[in-house]
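ENTRY TYPE: protein
WANTED: fold as tokens:
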Amino acid sequence: MKKIDLYDHPLSGNCYKVRLLLNQLNIKFNSIIIDVFKGQNREKFFKEINPAMKIPVLDDEGFVINESNAILIYLAEKYPSNFIPKALKERAELFSWLLYNKTSVDPFLAKARAIKKFFPSDKQNLSELALLQKEGHKALELIDKHLVNKNFFLTNYSIADISMYPYIKLSYEGEIELKNYKNILKWIENIEKTSDFVTIY
């Protein structure tokens, strides 16, 4: 039997992306929790697995890869599925969204969430939070316009949607509300109706 280990944490949106895809691919895996709040990601054993000291990390029978969106690409490429398109131009569009996710969506939504959810009130930099919220709304406005009359980012449900979903879904935890983004709200509903969907928590 194939052995796949996912170095994971239940509160991480990036880890959730990988768990969701593995579940929707019907691939069994072993979740190994790395408690980043206790600094386990900085311990020697984990630094040997990922020198960048970040989760998630996927170990697929000895092949180790990190960075959540890279893991999504790897899994979607390795295991036959419709999660990654075959046509060149549509793949290019997919990769564009995966990169946009990591440059212009997650950095703002995830950090705003971290400040409000995980930082004690006396450690919260409110000016930084306001900037993160402003930039987060810029990204959400762009995405909401893209999703006009669309069910998903591409023609079909793909890893582009999986990459975007968790930190958009959890944006309220960073006091970034989605009520004015009707297309995003519909898109969230569409994702949550996909086969073998699992909730974040």
